[in-house]
Amino acid sequence: MFDSKRLAHTAQYIAKLQLESGALPWFTGGIVDPWDHVEAIMGLTVGGHTQAARRGFEWLQQTQRDDGAWHAVYNNKQASQDTRAESNFVAYPATGLWHYFQATGDLETVVKYWPMIERALNFVLSLQTPEGEIYWAVDQSKGISRDALVTGCSSIYKSLECAAALASVLNKDTHRLLQARYQLGNAIRHKPHRFDRTWTSKSRYSMDWFYPVLTGVIQHSSAQNRLTRRWAEFVEPNLGCRCVADEPWVTIAETSELIMACMAANDIKSAKALYEGIQRFQFTDGSWWTGYVFTDNTLWPDERPSWTAAAVLLAADALFRLTPAHSLFNQHR
Asked: Is the overall model pTM greater than 0.85, yes or no?
């Protein structure tokens, strides 16, 4: 089901949320976090709102800390939690900038923001262990949180690919980025004992299941096998992907990302079926509900985040090739 007008309204919804500073909050009056801010930038890019996307990168440049990181949560330009930085949040602007360049060919913007990306990745790689995983957070008061997340590290893996691609366009050295990516991928694939060491396993969350496929850590037949093994646990027929295996709650962002993971695994049929299933969850203003509790027939929570709208736009681009950046999460180096 391809409806260009409905998707245009989705992009307009994100654009209307953007603050004068360039920040992209979750919703009106909501928080801003760097990862979801970047996701919203990519949604704007898919929708053709390139000036707004550039304003989003400008916000990132203006709020970047001296050490290259961003705080975990902001209220416009002010940090709401002013001590913690999360490694996958700090890495994700590289994915957003590479996506923007793929969609627009705007080299001037890449040149302008490359130093920001380089500083961010220096911070992230300072958290990589000799075993290859990357610690998930640093608190300026408590220090490094010495554990790693499969989903977060998978996201970083893709960001390292995108950062290397940006560096290559600018004729910069890519060796350190690609070596770090190789070591990180090896840890995710072959060293499960390096993750969730100090807390309960996150394997009940769907993102831990499909993110290694979405981001290219696991590819080809291995990707297909990974999705097949737990499909029945996470996918509710005709509705979408559960956030958590043992909760009756499908979420639109996770379903949209699973669509792209299916595309990466060359399961086009499942991707299309998932996309069809979520169409009922778009609101009249172009936004999309966070999720649906199917046992109660309830839309919950009463929120329609910018990043959910952006995830739908990225999934639509992957399926219908709306922009030159449609293969960002379908094809991996």
From this structure: yes
